[in-house]
Amino acid sequence: MALAHAARPQARRQPSRYRQIVEILVRHGLGYLIGAIEPPDWVPMRGRSATHTRRDERRTSPERLRRAIEELGPTFIKLGQILSTRGDLLPRPYLDELAMLQDGAPPIPPDLVRETLLAELGRPIEDAFATFDMTPLAAASIGQAHAATLLDGTEVVVKLRRPNVVERVEEDLHILLSLAAKASHHGHASEFYDLVGITQEFAQTLRHELDYLREGQNVERFAANFVGDPSVRIPRVYWETTTARMLTLERIRGIKISNVEALEAAGLDRCEVAAHASRILLTMILEQGFFHADPHPGNIFVEADGRIALIDFGMTGQVEGRTRELLIQLMLSISRQDAGQLADVVLELGMARAHVDRNALRRDLQRVLARYYGRPIGDVKFSAFLGELLDIIRRFHLRLPSDLSLLIKTLAMCEGLGVRLDPMFDFMTVYIPYAEQVIRRQFSFQRWAGQLALAGIDAMDLWLQLPQRLGHILGDIERGGFEINVQPQSFEPYLDQLEQLVNRLILGILAAAWTISVGLFVAAYHPEGLGFLSGVLFLLVLALGAGFGNYVLFLTLRNRRRAK
Which of 189, 238, 410, 531 gives the lowest tally of CB atoms within 10 Å of its CB? Predict the structure, then answer.
């Protein structure tokens, strides 16, 4: 509904923005993307056929794509950042290049900052803040952060959304969704991936990041999850000065986790800090099911007592219970070198629009596991293994849910951060013991007793309702309203081929029957004075039968050429 509502006022501006997108892509040597999806008629031909510069020709395709995205603006920068987490969709060179996208922007002019504050607060700035620094701490494409002080002296950070950014983002999202809809009707990728669904997932993620009220709710959810853990600090939200365009958070003071020299000067053990930060992330993923999806060094601070503080909760992910269990099984199957179980986990985690050969998938996974056979689990580099696993997932056209793709990228970022703190850091030595600890808790007597009690209640409820439900089914059968629909989507290609084969067989039989029946008719029935006409009729029917046969032969040969 939000997309439809936003598309109406943008209808007049869309052609110019569409034209701008086309010209930028062509200028960076990405004109083949335009050829894959025919633009509307109002896109000028000069924009479609223009050539890029010689400097762009010397750059790689991933680098040209990154530079084009940076020029296209905030919507496409966010798209590129999200795509950098989708190893199931893009090859490794593109992931590495898109991970370099810089979400920077010039600061908002101070007069616009004052206008935004007045509009959101509904009162003078001095009535809400004792001090407010108009020079931003950081500026990005969607918003910027300012240091401020509340009337009681509390230090806070105020995030302000850029003026008119929502309108520009909605216009770009409208174009992206229309392009995805067109691409879904043709092209190789549309056979294996739901392009419209992927684009809608991205649009939903970006809209959530534009809403600072939702980010404030994320902060409070993390605070509630870690309420009993004194080793983790989550900033407080000040709702009195928080709106959809403005977020006020407690200011975190500490050492940036990547500042190795400052950590050593404060007497903190870098190895312990790396392990502690990793355990916090695993707690979010494997136990809480709600995780911080952007754990880069600028968002993690270490306080003097070793407590880990987190900021910037705009990008988060969720992991449901079954997925958490599969993630644990994934790591255990790797440690046990069990390719069969690993293939089953991958198939259950991924989504496919076509049939996947499990045996071929298992063989590919076995080849990857064989490279790590006999090596201690601590010698397995987690990010390298994930990269190979994602290559296999992409090769079999499996698509991971967006939150799961984000989770994999988050785990890889966590390992990279740990290695930055301690070159000998091994994420697997933290992950495996933690996963085993979670499994022991899951299979404890208290947990099983609770699950058995719930299962007993469900079984008793089903048993009590069974006669009534059977009565409904029998009533539907008597009235003729009982139907069973089976839609085996994976069988559709084979059913289509079978239908074509049967149709050709019917044509061949009809041609033969037509020829034979007319021949018998002419041979058995000779009207007087029609001898010559009988011969002509026979030849005509014979020609029609031959035409039928040649048509069937043509269809068969054409399909063979297509298959090759």
Answer: 531
